Amino acid sequence: MVQNYASGVSEAQIRLFKGFGYLVLPQFFTPEEMQVLSREVEQTMALQYVHKPFDGSKRHWTMMLDEETPFHAGLLEDPRFLTLARQLYGDDVLGVGIDANRYVGNTGWHPDTASLLQYGIKFAFYLQPVGPDSGALRVIPGSHRFDLNDPFWGPAVRALPLEEVPATALSAQPGDVIGFDLRTWHASYGGGIDRRMGTVVYYNNPKTPEEVEYVRRQGEGNVNAAINSFEPQRRFLYSRSWLTNPQKSPWRRAWIERLATVGYFDAPNVVEGGWPLAEQRV
Description:
By secondary structure, this protein is α+β, with helices and mostly antiparallel strands. The protein is built from eight helices and ten strands.
């Protein structure tokens, strides 16, 4: 039976997340929603990689923010995600992205940020069952609190065989969602070929000059990690359509305004055609 997450989670679950950096949300999506998610991923991946169809040799990635994927595109504003993100990171949390992935093999240990000053939450969901030896997300509990400059967290963790690092493997069924702090060290083992995962990502609204600077840099970093690494057909993160906010979402408008203010959109290929949009230039 699908659970109702639109009203958020309990105080005990919030304490668990803040203490250990992750949270498992079983039965989040309905079976019907999973069918829609699968169909949108299949169609979009085919379009994004028409120039190099998936052959199991390299991961494929794409953003899922636009009108051709309407169910995915609405997930940032979906109360089930947004309410929880606001519970954990404040009412001014910033919705920044939705993507889809076709993974190949293991994923090595890493956090999803270059600094403890740039953080937020990533919600991950799989389109097939995953377990400890079949690609389930592995997390090092509490690692979101550790200093990224400590030499242990780079060389020492990566020097061990992936599966030998003490960690928690978060098995999941289609419909389940896992939320984790972007600073949490995570990996996956034994995923085989074509492990399909989607994510919904929110950033903390930066408050200090140092936090603002790291969010600004993250735009360029996201282009390098996604567009330049995987070379999808669409060579930008955010389309003109998404940024013009045709649905008139007050949430999206606030996110765009804040991200623009801190310079997140300024780097090449973050925005289709460059930022600001032509109709907004003076």
